[in-house]
């Protein structure tokens, strides 16, 4: 186990990141917020949603293995019921950094996905949001982190 701050820094040290569950009707959808923040902060980010080919004005891919050149890390922004399948895909593709997003609601965290990923050498951040740390942080997300919104683990 390592401190979540270290895991977050290592995760955000990667520049090719996929975000699953990005919605074609975004409003304030958590995965879309993360996707746009990563994109706006200079990351090469890939939207994953099998129901559309465009999100936030960018190309969208149906699955992780369809991303040209692959990715280094994945933010899971789907329902928890889809997280284990995504984690299995990450293991199959050799992706060893995964963040299961969780804001004020239930989020994307799946105990089964966490257990599977860690058993296969994946550093899994099971809660919170990448927008709470480092170069992607903003004041609102820092406040949420300080008050424990998103159930951020202390170690992963």
From TrEMBL:
Protein's name according to its UniProt entry: CoA-binding domain-containing protein
Start and end residues of each CoA-binding domain: 11-102
Lineage, uppermost ranks: Bacteria, Bacillati, Actinomycetota, Actinomycetes, Geodermatophilales
SMART domains reported in the protein's UniProt record: CoA_binding
